[in-house]
Predict the 3D structure of the following.
Amino acid sequence: MRTQGGDHEVDMIVSRRDGKVVAIETKLSSEVRPADVRQLNWLESEAPELVIDKVLLNTGKYAYRRKDGVAVIPLGMLGV
């Protein structure tokens, strides 16, 4: 998803039948920086009633949930 002006972009949006969404970013890094989750948090602030979860897929070793609610999940845990 990308805004018309290109100011905001989220890699993937998974939508349920009721319109609720999971926003997903992918990063080819094991380190999570604030900039990596900025767009996920922006989308949630714009549509809090629609975003049910935020996920960052990366190359790290551990899955965890950040204080801002973003689930960090290593790609290797998905079996891909």
